[in-house]
Amino acid sequence: MTTYLTPGGAETLHTAQGSLDLSRPVCMGVLNLTPDSFYDGASLGAARGGKFTINLDKALSRAESMLAEGARLIDVGGESTRPGAREVPLQEELDRVLPMVEALLERLDVIVSVDTSTPEVMQAAAAAGAGMINDVRALRRPGAIEAAAGTDMAVCLMHMRGEPDTMQEEPEYEDVVAEVAAFLRRRADAAIETGIDPQRIVIDPGFGFGKNTRHNFTLLREMRQFAGIGYPVLAGLSRKSMIGAATGRAPEQRLPGSIAAVMHALHGGARIVRSHDVAATVDAIGVHSMLQEDR
Hints:
The chain contains ten helices and twelve strands. The protein has helices at 56-68, 90-107, 119-128, 144-149, 176-193, 213-221, 223-227, 241-247, 255-267, 278-293, and strands at 12-15, 18-21, 26-32, 45-48, 51-54, 73-77, 111-115, 132-135, 154-158, 201-204, 234-236, 272-275. The strands form three sheets. It has an eight-stranded parallel beta sheet. The chain has a two-stranded antiparallel sheet with strand order 1-2. Strands 4-5 form a two-stranded antiparallel ribbon.
């Protein structure tokens, strides 16, 4: 079974926190709660007694700033998925994520997304009231698709070849666009067959996840192929290694290159842009939207 929505995806995404209007693209702010994320996760906590402890006040302040800058979603992650990242034990991921989810929902009017592949974390986040699951493994861990189907949360299904610790070891494709698109269609079909409403589904081609620089820029160039599948497309390009490859710059210097990539993703039909730099990304969305409106 293949289910298609309108070209470019539905203009409304159904989440457990209500509907999200996607007639104009929106920004998802990144809130990493890990010591080993490739860019900024360690800044929100400290190592104490051999364990990484989140500074909840500092993390909330970051989230408040992103909301003030125009973020419509905050993506909370307790397990790094950068190349070479280790798997985090269940209780450690829960200890990082749940207090933050609860604090965000108590204090801020924003849709909370939980960046996880772990069924137990999905269920706990749903019980806490979070609105969305953002899964780099596209609900392929045992029990994940059933856990997601048992909630009212939106789900983002991302393409990743392999696992984070091995995904960048000489990735190969015969046709990266066709293969990634086919994978996303299959995972969306599987989600629907398990009981997830099509209007809860978002897809993500997975820039940097089991792709080399050429693969990543081919996917970006052909973004319209993914928008044409019929679900809202999320693009996560912020400060990634593909931007470094194009510019020769370190992660902390990649904002201009990231915004250039974001503009191309928006032109290709992306409806959600995941970013560490909310204010700049929201400005890019504003310029893109004005160009569209003045046609």
